[in-house]
Batch of 2 targets.
Target 1
Amino acid sequence: MSRDEDALRWEGDDELDRATPRDARVAPVAAAPAAPARERGPQAIRWLALALAIAATAGWVVVVVANPVEQPSLVGLALYQLGELLAVVGPFAWWFVVDRLAPAARRAPWWLVGLVVTAPWPLVAGLLA
């Protein structure tokens, strides 16, 4: 019988599925290594970036509430409100996307860029003026 024909037969496969007590002693389960202490730094940056994203979101809520706008058409009003919604959700969405997609070593620069891009600039300019 050739090797190809042997591969198509089920003979002897029952013994392969049964584990023996000797098999359990051969391969002990290795314990997972403990996390190094240097991973605490990125966690602190992660929580700081989240706090800043929540602060920027709150800032956009203040801007939206403080500046009511009337539009001459229903379409203009709908689009303006969509822009307000995206401005409010933007900082947290940026944080979430960076947290999920960026490698851990490159998250901090992306969060810094997101903080600048999604900052509530109307509120910041009003406070500085």
Note: The chain has a mean pLDDT of 83.
Target 2
Amino acid sequence: MDAPRPSGARRALLIGLPVAALAAAAFLFVDRDERPGSNARPRSAEPRVAREPQRRDEAPVVPPAPPPATATVSAAAQESEPAPDTDPEASIIDRMRAALTSNPEEVLRLDDEASRDFGDSPRAAERGLLRVRALVRLDRIGQARSLAEDLIERYPDDPSAKSAAAYMGIHPRPRGPSR
């Protein structure tokens, strides 16, 4: 069961914006490549150095070579490298996302493992959404619907819980006093 289709105006935006962005990027890329030698400096912009005649018995003047910059480059490269992901739950969620289309059973196994290790963590609703989608792929619609109802009840303000409810076609009751 797929998510509901967007309305006409919304669908036009969803399709039109990426197409316009791609067209603009292609225009800028082509425009940049068509300019001949835009990066080259004209000869008139080069500084002129007055040359003194050199005597035959003098050695040519060679400017000193700059010191090797390998130490500074490697230090800068080490600083720019991103720190390794230290959140083990995030890596499990990434693995769940990757396995969703090819192996939904793996998603369920990973979610069971994460639930055992992390319990009711701040990312539990996100794991629940992936579990709902895996259950739908396995044609276990009743379990997916029950889980989506549970997610929206436990995490009413979480975007992942709202997404799971919308995916299953669940419309939660508004909170607050009834009229």
Note: The CA atoms of residues 89 and 151 lie 18 Å apart.
